[in-house]
Amino acid sequence: MSSSTELTEKKVFLLKSLDGVIFEVEESVAVQLEVIRELIEGDCARPFISLYNVTSEILALVIEYCKHHAETCSGGTSATIADEDLKTFDNEFMNVDENILLELCSAADYLDIKSLFELTCRTLASLIKDRTIIEVRKMFNVENDFSVVEEKAVRKEFAWAFK
Amino acid sequence: MGKLPREIIAEVLSWMRVKFLLRFRCVSKPWCSIIDSKDFVKLHLNHAGKTSSNCSLILDGLDDHFCLSLDSLNRIDIGSFPIENHIILNSCNGLVLLVSDKPLLWNPSTRKVKKLPFTPVECPKGTEAYIREAFGFGYDSKNDDYKVVRVVEVRDANGRYLFSETKVYSLKSNLWTRVEDFPYILPNNKRVWGVHVNGALHTVVQKCPHYGSSQSIIAFDVGTSELYEVPEMDLTGENIGISSVEAMGGCLTALLPKKMNTSEIWVMKEYGVKESWTKLLSFVPPVPELYMGLCPLAYSESGDKVLLDYDGRCLIWYDLRRQKASKIKSIRGYRQSLYALDSLGPPFHAELCVGSLVSLDSSSETDLTEKQKGQEKNKEKKIAKKRDDFLSAGFKLTL
Description:
The structure holds 2 protein chains of 2 kinds. Chain A is mainly alpha-helical.
């Protein structure tokens, strides 16, 4: 707590991705990662943090997202304009390949960024709603462990939902 | 991409409509068990209220029933309506209470129906149970149970008011229990009892069992079966008083009729706090000679509009910023203009219903609480484990 008042210059953190790429981020961006915020609050944060579960490709996107959200929220614009700006940004930000989307979702969960986690989950939900069972299995890498008879029975319980 | 953990799959699925979830039970056994789990049903319900694409309006007409999606107001298919000659009373967490001679619970999203067991009206000999009865339906969060409340007004052979028998049905136990009598005369409209806010059912009653006495908003706590008064706003002399209450966006709203049939809708922003009553809108009807009912149904997803049911004749989007009715949705069976009125009663009753997987099965209480305890313990363990994993594997603190 004391450190923030003592320092006049902006505090920066170095985040290292799984593949060894180092990203320099300001504290206002780093605190959007709930796990890092907790470390800072608990006075356990060191300026150099390795994130072993996130690749540089995904970490770059995560930082872009956090930066935009941090800037918009502290920009002094009115709440409604900021809201609309974030909505537009979020929509564009979600316009990525679905494998990237799955990894972003997983990273947002791991780094505990609530707004990004909800955004990716909602985007994935709307993406898969019209897909067939086989397409969904493929996308989520899920093995069908039903026997033919079992699957038929589960399908029959709510047969109308397949029309 | 490797397999996503169960918790992430559950979060993704929790933003989907019930129809797709019932389909995706076929993906695999783990997916089926996620969708069927009690925790998931609650998570889904929590999210369903946040998106208007997951809410629908059920329209109960004189000879037609149908369902509209809240975001587009287009018709959606809910299969055949479960019962003929039933009227829709109120809905809570995706379950709907319907009544004809017997009450029924219905989940339109899963298309499941449950008939409630018969319970007699317990009145002493020589008295007659007056046909006036009221039903309400709500969720008891303390006991994680759904309850139906029935009040039957009992009068003697001369029609003199005696008492109002009150019984509560618990979905969990599948039993009716008699509770303390309702000490007021029942309001005339059958539907007015089911206003569910803050775990209680609300209605406007005359304070004494004779007409012309002052009114008040009464709440029936679904968990404790206790009645209490909800504070009203301070009103100036020219006000007639509150004519009805409704629930919208989790808050209690009140309809205040004014001169020339203008109506005001007020919102109690903080439940139980008198000072939090705020005027939301003032509605000027195009035909002031006729008294028209007005019922607020829902906020738009952005929160700047309110959907109003204008006397069961048409649906109106009211723009809160511009302070006027902005759009009248034409729906088959509904009048397309506010001016095209006829002498018939309201053609429709619109009930807002969220899409949920809430089950209508009764189950023994001990089973449930033990299971819940187990799940909570697991959850705690999981959270602790997640943090440990993160700190050990994910982080390496280096100087």
